[in-house]
């Protein structure tokens, strides 16, 4: 099958969905009111609450939700064939993910820009609020662990990649100082300097690889599993303007530019999809994801279809930027569909590899031997990129090889394949580290809030010592999970946690729509995807718990999955009680709820 045909068909579906279903949600279900003051206008403080142009708000929201998830999940799910992932990305994003993001953004705006747990407390009850807060904390820890393993598998024994990624840290700090101290307000200058320096770090890689520095940068997986949490600790403890903010800013340029370049490359090259529509692993027993195509396709591909992590953004920074309620459609629904397109391109890049080459990269050598699959172009690809890419599971390497192969297939660019590969590795790792540093900081905030429930003064404390201690605690928590873990065990746990948050967010949205929408039947827009996702999460979680973790004595992931499933049940029971109470009374739509 032609990759171009798949892209054109998917683009048409996403555009039509935005035009018709997105408009229906905006006009009928949520009844967006452009005359109503948003929290950004009402509480404008020039810091947290600042009304932004809709395209600026869109750019921020897209950069925040589209981390490594839409790149990694689809690549891992390619083991089932190209069709299951494609269908889930399109159907999931249109009917579930974009609805989820849009409704949570609307709910937060109508509640004064409050967080998901605060909205749950208001719309469902205090028990649901506490359960949601705990679930959010566990999700962030698991996100850091899952994405951290992807970086480890991409960078171990790769001095070029380690050098490039390591250099982005002092570059980000320099840009932070440049924008904050040296040339305040000169964002254009800082952007140009930052992008040039990052690209220079990529091009200097081969010289470093062959220099005296190479042995010091050729790191084992265990070393990286220690260094990554250490980095997360520093990023969470340092002032936000010094490292986290400039890294996010530079990353947005790299992301947009690389995705556009990949789309252009696919259009020019028009590669063929080599992976079959379905593989034999749809019935289970896969070397990457052990379970059947359902429910595991829905927890493997989260970002790109529906992701509970998005609820943290939709009820975090974004609602404090929306200048007009009519912008909720383009920011909430539109950004999610854009991310779905990114996920589809990642899936295409991976499935343009020959099946044997794909599985040789994404499984350990001892496991690949049992598959009895021949490699086709892998030796040549390894030679062209200058690295042995076999036995590097996690999705990042196979995606980078696929992207590099597409770029190198453009006439005149074949000799630059090693650069394309390392650029793709840098592109992926840079965004994962952005998620890690931001996520570790957010986890620190949430840990402080949870402790504040026990001892109130902690919640508002500005103590540097407390910040350092909590940063160390959350960094150790996710670092412990990746040390000795592997992508096959941690990614499904992350998927369960992520989609559990999606269930909770849709349940909260259902409660709000039942009370405030003009017609109660509109609550089906969130209730139906919530029901599907709840059944999926419970099924996948129980399978992992009873058939993988407990039989193999993996108690840490077993306990985490058990906690997430319990929290989902608690919130669902609370929501059902709330819904029955609402439905027992005459329908009197409320105009709004504001704080």
Please render the helix and strand layout as text:
Elements: H1 3-29, H2 39-42, H3 54-65, H4 69-77, H5 82-110, H6 116-123, H7 126-155, H8 159-182, H9 187-203, H10 205-209, H11 214-217, H12 221-237, H13 244-269, H14 293-300, H15 309-314, H16 328-351, H17 355-362, H18 365-368, H19 378-385, H20 396-408, H21 417-454, H22 456-459, H23 464-482, H24 487-516, H25 524-549, H26 555-583
Describe it for me?
The structure is a single chain. By secondary structure, this protein is mostly helical. The protein is built from 26 helices and no strands. The protein is globular, with a radius of gyration of 23 Å. The mean pLDDT is 84. Belongs to the peptide transporter carbon starvation (CstA) (TC 2.A.114) family. The chain crosses the membrane at residues 6-27, 62-82, 88-109, 130-154, 160-178, 190-208, 228-244, 256-273, 293-313, 333-354, 419-443, 464-483, 489-509, 521-543, 555-577. It comes from Carboxydothermus ferrireducens DSM 11255. Keywords: Cell membrane, Membrane, Transmembrane, Transmembrane helix, Transport. This is Carbon starvation protein.
């Amino acid at each position: 099958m032609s990759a171009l045909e798949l892209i054109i068909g998917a683009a048409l579906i996403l555009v039509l969905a935005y035009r018709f279903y997105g408009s229906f949600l905006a006009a009928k279900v949520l009844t967006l009111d452009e005359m109503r003051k948003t929290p950004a206008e009402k509480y404008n403080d020039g810091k947290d609450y600042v009304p932004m142009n809709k395209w600026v708000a869109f750019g921020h929201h897209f950069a925040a939700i589209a981390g490594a998830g839409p790149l990694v999940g689809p690549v891992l799910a390619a083991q089932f064939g190209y069709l299951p992932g494609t269908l889930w990305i399109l159907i999931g994003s249109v009917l579930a993910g974009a609805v989820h993001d849009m409704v949570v953004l609307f709910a937060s705006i109508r509640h004064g820009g409050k967080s998901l747990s605060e909205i749950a407390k208001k719309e469902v009850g205090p028990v649901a609020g506490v359960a949601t807060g705990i679930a959010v904390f566990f999700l962030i820890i698991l996100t850091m662990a899952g994405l951290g393993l992807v970086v480890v598998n991409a960078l171990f024994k790769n001095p070029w990649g380690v050098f490039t990624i390591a250099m982005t840290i002092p570059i980000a700090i320099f840009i932070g100082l440049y924008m904050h101290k040296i040339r305040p307000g000169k964002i254009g200058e800082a952007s140009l300097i930052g992008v040039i320096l990052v690209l220079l770090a990529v091009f200097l890689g081969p010289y470093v690889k062959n220099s005296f520095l190479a042995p010091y940068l050729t790191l084992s997986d265990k070393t990286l599993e220690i260094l990554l949490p250490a980095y997360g600790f520093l990023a969470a403890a340092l002032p936000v303007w010094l490292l986290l903010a400039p890294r996010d800013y530079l990353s947005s340029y790299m992301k947009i530019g690389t995705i556009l370049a990949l789309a252009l490359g696919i259009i020019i090259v028009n590669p063929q999809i080599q992976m079959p529509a379905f593989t034999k692993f749809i019935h289970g027993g896969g070397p990457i994801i052990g379970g059947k195509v359902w429910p595991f396709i829905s927890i493997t591909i989260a970002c790109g279809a529906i992701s509970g992590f998005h609820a943290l953004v939709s009820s975090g920074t974004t609602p404090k930027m929306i200048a007009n309620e009519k912008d909720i459609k383009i920011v909430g629904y539109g950004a999610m569909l854009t991310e779905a397109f990114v996920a589809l391109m990642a899936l295409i890049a991976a499935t343009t590899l020959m099946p044997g080459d794909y599985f040789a990269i994404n499984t350990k050598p001892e496991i690949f031997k049992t598959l009895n699959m021949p490699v086709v172009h892998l030796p040549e690809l390894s030679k062209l990129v200058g690295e042995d890419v076999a036995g590097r599971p996690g999705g990042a390497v196979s995606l980078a090889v696929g992207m590099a192969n597409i770029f190198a297939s453009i006439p005149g660019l074949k000799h630059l394949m090693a650069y394309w590969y390392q650029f793709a590795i840098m592109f992926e790792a840079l965004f994962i580290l952005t998620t890690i540093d931001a996520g570790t900081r957010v986890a620190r905030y949430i840990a402080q809030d949870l402790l504040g429930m026990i001892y109130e003064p902690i919640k508002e404390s500005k103590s540097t010592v407390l910040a350092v201690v909590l940063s160390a605690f959350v960094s150790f928590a996710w670092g412990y999970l990746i040390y000795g873990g592997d992508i096959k065990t941690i990614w499904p746990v992350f998927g369960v946690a992520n989609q559990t948050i999606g269930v909770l967010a849709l349940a909260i949205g259902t409660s709000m729509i039942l009370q405030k929408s003009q017609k109660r039947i509109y609550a089906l827009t969130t209730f139906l995807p919530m029901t599907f996702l709840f059944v999926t999460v419970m099924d996948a979680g129980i399978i992992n718990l009873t058939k993988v973790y407990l039989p193999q004595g993996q108690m840490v992931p077993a306990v985490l999955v058990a906690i997430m499933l319990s929290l989902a049940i608690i919130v669902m029971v609370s929501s059902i009680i709330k819904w029955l109470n609402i439905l027992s009374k005459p329908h009197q739509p409320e105009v709004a709820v504001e704080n």
